[in-house]
Amino acid sequence: MKKILFLVLLLAAAMFALAACRGGGNGGDGPVATPTPVVTPPPALTPADPPPPPPAPPGTREYILARAAAMTPAPGSYIVNATITRPDSNMLSSAWSNPAPNAQARVMMGGISTMGRNHVNDFFPNPLVMVDGAWPEITDLPNGDRRYTFTIYTDLVFSDGTPITAYHFGGGLAFAISYQWTSIVPSNFVLPHMAYRGPFLAGEIDVLPSVRIYNERQFSLTKLAEYLPNFWEASANMNVGPSPLHMYGIEAHDNGDGVFLTAIGGGPFTVDALRERVLGGVETFVQHLDPDGNPMYDSDGNPTGEYFTDGLKFRPTVVSGPYMFDSVDVGNGVLTMVANPNFPGTWDGYRPRIERVIWRMTPAPIMVDALATGLAHVAENVNDGTTIGDALDVLVGGGTHTFITYAQNGQLFTQFHVDTGPTQFVEVRQALSFLQDRHAMNEEVGRGFTAVAHGPWSEAWWWHQEAVDRGLYDRVTIYSLNIARAIELLEQGGWNYNADGSAFVQGVDELRHKWVDEWDWGRDEDGEIERIYREGGVAIRSNKVYTGERVLMPLIINWMVRAVDYPFRDALERTFFDNVAYAGGLVIQERSALWSGALSSGYAFAGGRFEMHTLGVTMAITWSPWIQARLDAIPAQNWHQADSPRWRDLAHNIMIQDITTPEGREGFIAAYIDYMEYRTYHAFTLPFNSAVVHDFIPVGLGGWFNTALWAFPEAIQRAYWR
């Protein structure tokens, strides 16, 4: 069995831009501070011993299938996962929103794929999918591109009994970047390494030459030379899952030159028909309710809630994974999945033994009571110190639950939008970072279970630990509370005027201004947002157009945050506003929103309305800053820094390292440190903490195995009620 020698983590779309600002430890622009390591405090009780890690795949496919087939859900069994985030009605794509329950549910609906992945993030051929458990055949083409040919078994089926063939794998690749699909769902991050992606995505060609389907058992994918080599090319890069094309009313064909898509029966595959399936139907509004069942309203008195229809976005009908969508109650924040009877099993021979999985929105202040009374059963990935302490005392001390701990694979962070408003200037982003007392916040809320994070990383990454040993903290900027430094940065950045152009006087005047070239929202001839502006005579992609005027920009920051009752967010708000008021000359206009609203505002340009956006994100499985740097169009996440040649070069230097050799491993660590130095200096985002998170598991639940790199969708497939 071929195994990779590294752990790969990809930050989900919103985490690509995480950063802080340049090295406080190397004579940079920040005060020198000693980083606080993440240390597990002595717990009141001893964590439970987890079950042994899953073994390597058994010797034969027949054995794996037989082992999995013997596992069936106990009739009427269910488990309730307490979550602080409200599930929303979008079940089909993270491009609309991505609250944690929905993200976990999507993973569970799409479980079949060409690669397996174990608890330490090794990738290998899935023995249930790939014939003879073989790796794809690799062919290097004369132009430097690389073709991967997959040979799959054809005895697996979707949840509705439809056989899964190479047409669902290869056709799914074409569907993901088709202009029909992307006209409904923005897909900046989908398959950027695929040859011919650009013209197919734009609808300039109808046949995709980089994907071939030879028969029901074989398909191939061709990737661009410019993405080769890279350190995850021979592992996660080979992971392809099938798409239930018939659910969308389409089918895939190959004409000898590549794959193309039609409606079922051969008619045209149209945007209108797809939109009707995905979004169509009569809209229904459901108002959100608080934990006591009372209707919720925003700060303006308008009811908060969601619109949904009978479209596939809200009610997908066909899946390949272990669980199927059952229902979602957006009012009460309850999402339910039910076991898929046609799921063949995991790579190591497990099928669901719990019939229903339920996510129930459970705010932190009532979480322990909810678990103690049976309203919920499991609380996983808990990082709030008060909740952890109470749960150790009440649940573990009371004998109803056990617990396990591991490094958090995620962060709470503030994203600064660098394409609009005052935060387009690095001095403002740095100043805002120096006005946040993250140490006090972690002491207040983390209670010893969290520590300040100084960059976009996870303590679970092996390369991060090695980078720390090689001087990472001497190179990155460390932002501790420093109001005087924040004021100094604003003055250096030119924020020294009043609205009438007179000199701003610290402690006397109310609002700083800066002379800037005026940027207006504009539309091109097709009505799309104009994405070209000029800076020093160089054209750069953006969502602004330069008007040629000089104007005074006020130092007003619009901040989008999620709703209250999230402890870290509440602590941030209290300390941040006090520090901003003390600094003077700066106004923060706060806009709170429920989770889905905050996400949609942060992930999109949001009409230039918000310069800051605070949210938490769980990191996914393949980390690659190069993906973002090579996008053809500016990403939807307001990451204008992708246009920086230096940023692109640093990302490329990480990608090309071959860490299967000692020299490549050292080069990888060095490139990672260089990259983080740049990212933290430019303060694209400011992370708040790293955490030692806890899972609290009822004593009657067996088989629970979780790690920073595996997470709930994997753990629940192997769990069972004793």
Describe the structure.
This protein is an alpha+beta fold. The chain is built from 19 helices and 29 strands. The strands form 10 sheets. A 5-stranded mixed sheet has the order 24-23-25-17-26. The chain has a 4-stranded mixed sheet with strand order 1-14-13-12. A 4-stranded antiparallel sheet has the order 4-5-7-6, covered by helices on one side. Helix 17 packs antiparallel against helix 18. It is globular. It starts with 60 loop residues before the first helix and ends with a strand.
Task: Please outline what is shown here.
The chain contains 19 helices and 29 strands. It has 722 residues and is an alpha+beta fold. Helix 9 runs antiparallel to helix 13 and helix 17 (645-655) packs antiparallel against helix 18 (662-682).
The general outline is: globular
Number of helices: 19
Structural class: alpha+beta
Strand content: 15-25%
Any idea what the radius of gyration is?
25 Å
Largest sheet: 5 strands, mixed
Strand order of the largest sheet: 24-23-25-17-26
Count of β-strands: 29
How far is it from the N-terminal to the C-terminal residue, by CA?
34 Å
Mean pLDDT: 81
Residue stretches low in confidence (pLDDT < 50, at least 5 long) are 1-44, 520-545, 603-608, 630-642
